[in-house]
From TrEMBL:
Coiled coil: none annotated. InterPro entries: HAD-like_sf, HAD_sf, Pyrimidine_nucleotidase_eu. It catalyses: a ribonucleoside 5'-phosphate + H2O = a ribonucleoside + phosphate. GO terms for molecular function: 5'-nucleotidase activity; magnesium ion binding; nucleotide binding. Its EC number is 3.1.3.5. This is 5'-nucleotidase. GO terms for biological process: nucleotide metabolic process. The lineage of its organism: Eukaryota, Viridiplantae, Streptophyta, Embryophyta, Tracheophyta. The keyword Magnesium applies. Transmembrane segments: none annotated. Pfam families: UMPH-1. It comes from the Eukaryota. Belongs to the pyrimidine 5'-nucleotidase family.
Length: 356
């Protein structure tokens, strides 16, 4: 297993502007109206009442969302629209954010967990590392500074096993081919919409860029000029065998926009896999952010950016009853139960529309 292969699920995307219509979905009944107070919109007693926005055609979207503060969200949407698409960027986590949590009733694999080295001995060694370090990763009693050193150690040992075990790029392609991994419905539409409007999308991951990019190739069958994967990048020899890693390690506790400063020179030396010249300075100058994540810790992905407005969308895919309150407070919008990406597409469409 790779570091951080299993973790709580959360992410965001949705919106209810002032006066817009919506539906309550509760006990399989739909009730439409105008947006009430946040507490009534989100809760009935101790139970959550999910909210589903109505599409432009009047059809109910098959999603469940919670918005803690609709008025605050409306103000952010208005500010981002007025500033224009030239000031907007999207930052997204990969596993369980862009990808689905469940696939045909089976837990989908992460980009970490799908890798098979072609050497069972080393697969087992990586799994043993996960079983030792993961409890330390989620421990609430270990100070952050100490935990960061532990994570650095874990990632270093895991990367070492991949080199020692003779990982090849062909093994990565074979692993992805056989993997139970899929993008959320609507992700391709989101990517195409952002590309058409020149809005950059940074995909942050503590995993391996080479695996993530292979998932893009095999599952979407195309590349996007506006997308950049910021993650740990492998170096292969002429025979396609892993010989090392470039740059400083990106792990779960330093996966934020500071990683751009670590990753940029690395990617410049290696060459962008899409053959593109990605201007990181220009990206950091975009002061309005749409952040997509599945874990409260993903909010840190924008820590290195001096943003003016940020809309945080969280995907909460399991343990909804136990985690909803924390996610509602942390994210502007919370999508429940492995929701599709179509609500985010609707939100981005509004953010990129001309102000009235």
């Amino acid at each position: 297993m790779f570091p951080g292969a299993l973790r709580a699920i959360a992410s965001t995307s949705a919106l209810i502007p002032r006066g817009s219509s919506f539906s309550f979905q509760h006990s399989h009944k739909h009730l439409t109206g105008t947006a009430p107070s946040p507490s009534r919109a989100c809760f009935h007693g101790n139970r959550c009442i999910p909210i589903a926005p109505v599409s432009s055609t009047g059809a109910f979207m098959d999603v469940e969302i919670v918005i803690g503060d609709p008025e605050s969200l409306r103000k952010k949407i208005d500010a981002i629209r007025i500033a224009g698409t030239g000031k907007l960027q999207v930052i997204a986590d990969f596993d369980c954010t862009l990808t689905r949590y469940w696939i045909d009733g089976v837990r989908g694999q992460s980009s970490h967990g799908l890798l098979r080295q072609g050497n069972p001995e080393f697969d087992e060694k990586r799994k043993a590392l996960y079983e030792y370090y993961h409890p330390l990763e989620i421990s609430p009693t270990i100070p952050i500074a100490e935990k960061a050193k532990i994570m650095e150690e874990w990632w270093g040992k895991t990367h070492g096993l991949l080199v020692e075990g003779g990982l090849t790029f062909q093994a990565i392609k074979d692993s992805v081919l056989d993997a139970n991994i899929a993008f959320r419905d609507g992700v391709l539409e989101l990517f195409e919409f952002l590309e058409e409007r020149g809005v950059p999308l940074l995909v942050f991951s503590a995993g391996l860029a080479d695996i993530i990019e292979e998932v893009f190739r095999q599952r979407l069958h195309r590349t996007f000029k506006n997308i950049k994967v910021v993650s740990n990048r492998m170096v292969f020899d002429g025979n396609g065998q892993l010989i090392g890693f470039k740059g400083k390690t990106i792990h779960v506790l330093n996966k934020n926009e500071h990683a751009l400063d670590m990753a940029a020179p690395v990617h410049e030396k290696l060459g962008d896999p899409n053959g593109l010249d990605y201007d990181f300075a220009s990206v950091k100058a975009r002061k309005n952010v749409l952040l997509l994540g599945d874990h409260i810790g993903d909010l840190g992905m924008s820590d290195g950016l001096n943003y003016e407005n940020r809309i945080a969308v969280g995907f909460l895919n399991e343990n909804v009853a136990d985690s909803l309150e924390n996610y509602r407070e942390a994210f502007d919008i919370v999508y429940l139960n492995d929701a599709p990406m179509k609500g985010v597409v609707q939100l981005v469409s509004q953010l990129c529309s001309s102000p009235k």
